[in-house]
Amino acid sequence: MAMEKLSAGNPETRSADLVQENIDRLKTLFPDLVTEGPDGTAVNVDVLKALIGDETVTDCDEKYGLNWHGKRRARQLALTPSTGTLRPAPEESVEWDTTQNLMIEGDNLEVLKLLQKSYAGRVKLIYIDPPYNTGKDFVYPDDFRDSIANYLEVTGQLEGGHRALSDAEVGGRVHTAWLNMMYPRLRLARSILRQDGYIFVSIDHNELPSLVQMLREIFGEENEIEIFSWVRTRTPAALSIKTKTVTEYIVCFQRSASSDRLLGIEKPAQSANTLLNQSNPLRELVFPSGTPAGFEDCELRPGKYGSNSYDVELLETAEVRGRVFTTPVRLRARFRWSQSYLAEQLNNGVVVRIATKKLLPSYEKASYGREALPNLIDDSVGVGTNEQAGAEVAELLGAKGIVSFPKPLSLLRYLVASCTGDHDIVLDFFAGSGTTGHAVLEQNQLDGAHRRYVLVQLPTPLSIDDKEQAAAAAFCDSLQLPRNLAEITKERLRRAGRRLKHDSSHGLRDSGFRVFKLDASNVRAWDPAGEGLEEALRGSVEHVVPERSMSDLLYEVLLKRGLELTVPIETRVLGKQKVSSVGLGVLMVCLEDRLDQGDVDSLCRGLVEWRKELGPAGATVCVFRDSAFENDVVKTNMAAILEQHGLGPMRTI
């Protein structure tokens, strides 16, 4: 009889243990590499050296790579499991019951850890626009930023409280803070990407070298695609000290070599007249009609339609590709003589005989297909500037200055279209105002696909007294929303979804989003030191955090068992108990707070019949609240009956 209580220390109640997963992979490849150490499972470095050669293992300082103070701690942080959870907020969501899109409010590092079980290897595209390192103090919840004094001490610039150097190297401290913030997030991002997935990171010149080197280390140099230059403005600051900067950068890496080629937008068809009006650097003559290939000889004479018009007469009737041509035939082509020289010859009555193999035809093409992306992203590929982005947000939200330096929708649509298709997932864990989600909806509207977005945004507080935040804070006040950036993200998504759904000619299938908020786990950990022994003992009986709802518990179960937060859920009342079927019977959850002996028969019978109706391919896991059972006998009977009918294993929380 299988039954297990899921406590706060159980692996199933935490995010993925990436360290243990790495050890398991190593053990699969090299069983003798993994051994038992004083603190449990460990890797035998001596065996590692023997397997791959002493000279290939190094811990010396003189090694190639990007290093900084705090890197080891940042790496460990990425590998530390999270014990938090994501609590649903249906009241702040749009189309909760049907949408597949997610907007998650909270620190993106913890959220990325929590998404590992459910979304690892499933995201096709990650785009992030992280805070640029402009030299100001950089603060984030997992802030590694040393005080100036501590940093100088660590880096040898301070001895006994006095500077050892004439000038403090503050740049390193600033770079260190930014690198320590980005490194663990990028490591977690890689594991979430599909094998054929891509990551795009917007950045300016300050941290471009560090970012590229960091991504090379995490993703591998062989998976670097390009450092795209994006023309962010056509009107650079007039008082620029060094240069008038008009570009920023978008660094692109692939998850692995299995990725498809990045493709740009389809070039629109060009008419013959459009081609005629284009500049011709070779000064080749342009004739005003199409050129069938395969003619032998023809004669050129001045035409009836102006000085740049010429008639071409065939010496005889010709059949080309099934079409019969007779004189006169007008051709459009590029000729190797200059326009003036040819006109002079024809005006002098010289009969010009040419072989058509020397004619390079211009013609109207229905479609040019999709080509590889150019490394310059500007209006030539339909991408706008920061100024256009600001106007877009102001028009949608009804006020200027709410969002600082947003990216244009056209840029994000361009990147989304380059590597995603139907049902692909797009992730942005520095969501800002929600441009990525908005762009996914617009691209779905354009091509009829059903991409999904997952956005993560920290609820950064906004102050009405801060000049740069005043407009955003006032906007939140006008809608009676809390003053934080995540509220603006959600409001933009609401308005964008409504507009696109209304304007869509063929109907936008999904314009909604589910809101989840990062919080501490719904299951209390055993902590007698913190609460006192008596309080801890009471908590061990009912270890669900007070005031947490059944919905909170349900979604924590989903998250920790590796199910998507948008998986279908159906709820029924079986006997007197409310039960949720998740993923068409893969998981059945009853989180009522009271189950006595009289409930066992009706509940078990209902569960068995419902499972038969759904017909899941594999086993069905049943989860109950541990404290709900009247006693251990009731719990044991429940587990036995369910297992007898093929429902198991049974879990309690």
Give me the secondary-structure topology.
Blueprint: E1 3-5, H1 18-29, E2 34-37, E3 40-43, H2 45-52, H3 71-79, E4 85-88, E5 102-105, H4 108-114, H5 116-119, E6 123-128, H6 148-154, E7 158-159, E8 162-163, H7 170-192, E9 193-203, H8 208-219, E10 224-231, E11 247-254, E12 263-266, H9 272-277, E13 285-286, E14 297-302, E15 310-314, E16 318-320, E17 323-325, E18 333-335, H10 339-347, E19 352-355, E20 360-361, E21 370-372, E22 376-377, H11 386-397, H12 409-419, E23 425-428, H13 435-447, E24 452-457, H14 470-478, H15 485-503, E25 514-519, H16 528-531, H17 533-541, H18 550-560, E26 569-574, E27 577-582, E28 587-590, H19 597-614, E29 620-624, H20 632-644, E30 647-652
Parallel strand pairs: 1-30, 5-24, 5-25, 6-9, 6-23, 10-22, 23-24, 28-29, 29-30
Antiparallel strand pairs: 2-3, 4-25, 7-8, 9-11, 10-11, 12-21, 13-18, 14-15, 14-19, 16-17, 18-20, 26-27, 27-28
Helix pairs in contact: 3-7, 4-7, 7-8, 12-13, 13-15, 19-20
